[in-house]
Amino acid sequence: MAFQGVRLITWTYDPLESRNARLNIAKLGAVCSKYLREPYGNMDDALNAAVPADRFQVDWWITSPRAKERMFGQRAPLILESFTSAGAPLINPSQVGPDGLPRPAEHLQDMESTVILIEIPSNYQLIKARDLELARAWRAHSGDLFESAFNNGYWVTDFIYELVDGRQRSIYALSEGEHRIEVSEN
User: Fold this and answer.
1) Structural domain includes residue 71
2) Strand pairing class (167-176; 154-164)
3) Phi, psi at residue 5, to the nearest 5°?
4) Number of domains in the chain
5) Beta-carbon contacts of residue 54 (< 8 Å; ≥ 6 apart)
6) Residue 133 domain flag
7) I need a labelling partner for 84 at 20 to 30 A (CA). Which of 71, 92, 156, 173 fits?
8) Per-residue pLDDT for 44 more than 70?
9) Which has more confidence, 85 or 4?
10) What is the pLDDT of residue 71?
11) Could you give the CA distance from residue 138 to residue 140 in angstroms, rounded to a whole number?
């Protein structure tokens, strides 16, 4: 399934936009090991105004079994319990503030597992609309975590979006080690 000989497509998206993570990582099977700080400079459009417009640069190996399984629904989405029961730590579990908005974790767990989990807000645009300082805090918090994880050899390989303990949670799964892609010819 190479499209005109193309096997790899690369693009960027905002890693705090949960709906984009669900599409790019969970449904299409893209992977990521690059966090870009404001690659487009200061953006003043409605989605990016007043906070840094950081991005993930993702790789989509369209001929890989991983991408095919995800695109054609041959792999059921994993749930948080699938990861935590196997020992993957949620290194930054959010807490809900008095205003009902999730706050970045104040204390982080160590990145000492082959798979780690990093939480982001499920509705970043709502946070930006209601509390701009909190939106900036999430951007700084997540940017530092992803850069540290990528510098330590982790790759974003999955995304979890589910209701946990009565609230919607959005969590990236990162796998340690060199990422290998099997590419098929058809």
Assistant:
1) yes
2) antiparallel
3) 80, -5
4) 1
5) 14, 15, 35, 36, 37, 38, 39, 139, 143
6) yes
7) 71
8) no
9) 85
10) 87
11) 6
Give the contacts of 41 (CB within 8 A, at least 6 positions apart): 53
Instruction: Identify the pLDDT of residue 50.
Output: 73
* Mean pLDDT over the full length of the chain: 89
Residue 1 lies inside a defined structural domain of this protein: no
* Both tokens assigned to 131: 């509390």
pLDDT at position 142 is 97
Please give the residue that has the higher pLDDT: either 39 or 141.
141
25 φ, ψ (degrees, to nearest 5): -95, -55
C-alpha 47/C-alpha 32 separation (Å) is 22
Q: In angstroms, what CA-CA distances link 100 with 130, 132, 163?
A: 11, 15, 15
Is residue 182 assigned to a domain? no
Domain interval for residue 155? 8-176
Q: Which two tokens stand for residue 137?
A: 């805090």
Q: Residue 58: which H helix or E strand, with range?
A: strand 55-61
Q: Quote the tokens at residue 26.
A: 């969970």
Among candidate residues 118, 115, 98, the one with its CA nearest the CA of residue 16: 118
Residues 67, 179: contact at Cβ < 8 Å? no
